Amino acid sequence: MQNELVIVLDFGGQYNQLIARRVRECSVYCEVHPYTLPLEEIRKKAPKGIIFTGGPNSVYGANAPACDKAIYDLGIPILGICYGAQLMMAQLGGVVSTAPVREYGVTEVTFDNTGKLFGNVAHKSICLMSHTDYVSKPADGFKIVGTTDACPFAASENVEKNLYTVQFHPEVNHTKEGTTILSNFLFDVCQCAGDWKMDSFVERSIEAIRAKVGDGKVLCALSGGVDSSVAAVMLSKAVGKQLTCIFVDHGLLRKNEGDEVEEVFSKSGKFDLNFIRVNAQKRFYDKLEGVSEPEKKRKIIGEEFIRVFEEEAKKIGTVDYLVQGTIYPDVIESGLGDSAVIKSHHNVGGLPDYVDFKEIIEPLRDLFKDEVRKSGLELGIPDYLVFRQPFPGPGLAIRIIGEVTEEKIKILQEADAIYREEIKKAGIDRSIGQYFAALTNMRSVGVMGDERTYDYAVALRAVNTSDFMTADAAELPWEVLGIVSQRIVNEVKHVNRVLYDCTGKPPATIEFE
Ligand code: XMP
Q1: What is the CA radius of gyration of the chain?
Q2: Residue 254 — φ and ψ, nearest 5°?
């Protein structure tokens, strides 16, 4: 059965998939397409609504992305966000110019509550603004329904034509009533029914994989983390024993993790798949010797991973597909189209020129972490695996600042294990988005017994986030931090200081690298 659909037209913004995910959260199926999607295609897909994303360009700049103006005559409701709002206005005869005062960050917007999008929103509400240009003269037929001190036309609507604009970003958590505003668009304006569920996504994906793979052989890069585990189980449900999962133990995993992964996916016999463990620790350590720069570490590990797969693939004969558990935040931060590269994620960047596979399959590429978890539960993966801490592909190598050595890996594994154990004991493990220890490259003076020490500082990180695109530092109970730091300093050799990272994302990232 064809689900009702909302289309997000991507104009190059950082939050385009986040918009789609927010729509899916409202139980409406949503796909992201490039702004170049032909009008005919849009008509064929018959979406209930269209959302234009933000983007880094100025609407009057050279090569500014623009869609066909005829889109406004399709009779499909459209919501323009940020650049999308400016584009709609400019295309319909309004004026966009450089704002005298740029707004970056949370800003109070005053809403006209008679507006269709804002009827049930507070008269004054906090929203995330992030723009250089603004609408300086709205197009004819638009009523202004939102203003800020610096942006007189922060939201507008043309109810007759079902066209809506917001200069702020309703999709991010920082916009307090963003979900309400999006729901108003979906349900009041687009008249969606909201009957889509994650199981539809899982079923659809399994069928699509089966059709694509046919009787081909599939190789899966299994790390034991949530993402690759969900991808692997999805593949095993689709093609059974045509799938071989290779687990590369690069020696950069958390304490005991290598053995745990082998236990779950192989020894327990719980899942129907071929499992191979490759003990490649030494290869990775050798390649990482003397390397401090985090991007370089990522590239080296990514490439070495692919080499190991190529070698294993050759051993098991012809392989047609390689499966990876890439999820959406990995993709966006590795740079898509014109958006800036923040870091090259292990699953995305660092592919060598020659790859000995026909194609890479990334079934979770459009999903956010919590959506991946929901899919995992739908697939019958046990809770403890589904709710496992996220762990980056390059592993502890990026959580060790500076050069990676076997000694530092051991220190970090021990410190991190203590931290995780105490968080669990305190019963707060499920309420924190992600938490882990990192090993700083800083050594400082301490005193233990009567001895002077000159040892490392371990940094503890804990963040709350729903989408891993933005995050706030978690406020951990002081008592727990006290126990953790005491235990780490007492039990882990060469650590004499424990620090807590209070930075949010942005400006930091979640990983401490
Ligand atoms: P950042 O540090 O980018 O992290 O704010 C966002 C989320 O992504 C995880 N992460 C990775 N996951 N491969 C992955 O599969 C990677 O290379 C990678 N780097 C970061 C990170 O742990 C957090 O959950």
Answers
A1: 25
A2: -70, 170
Q: Which CATH architecture describes the domain 198-386?
A: 3-Layer(aba) Sandwich (3.40)
| Residue spans in the chain of domains classed CATH 3.40.50.620 | 198-386
Strand partners, 164: 79, 157
Give span(s): CATH 3.40.50.880, the chain: 6-189
pLDDT in tens, 15-61: 888 999 999 999 999 988 999 999 999 999 999 999 999 999 999 99
Contact 503 CB / ligand 1 (< 6 Å): no
Position 171, amino acid? E
Q: Does ligand 1 come within 6 angstroms of the Cβ of 333?
A: yes
Q: Are 375 and 198 in contact (CB under 8 A)?
A: yes
pLDDT in tens, 317-360: 778 998 988 887 776 554 444 444 444 554 444 444 444 578 88
What's the rounded mean pLDDT across residues 139-151?
Answer: 95
Q: How far is the CA of 506 from the centre of ligand 1 (A)?
A: 14
CB of 390 closer than 6 angstroms to any ligand 1 atom:
yes
The pLDDT of residue 348 is: 43
d(CA 15, ligand 1 centre) in Å:
17
Catalytic residues: 82, 169, 171
Q: Provide CB contacts within 8 A for 499, sequence distance 6+.
A: 440, 457, 458, 459, 460
- Reading phi first (left if > 0) and then psi (alpha if -120 to 50, else beta), residue 191 is in left
Contact 335, 298 (CB under 8 A): no
* Reported pTM: 0.67
Q: Which CATH class is domain 6-189?
A: alpha beta
Q: Which atom of ligand 1 is nearest to the CA of 513?
A: 2
Ligand 1 contacts CB of residue 346 (under 6 A) = yes
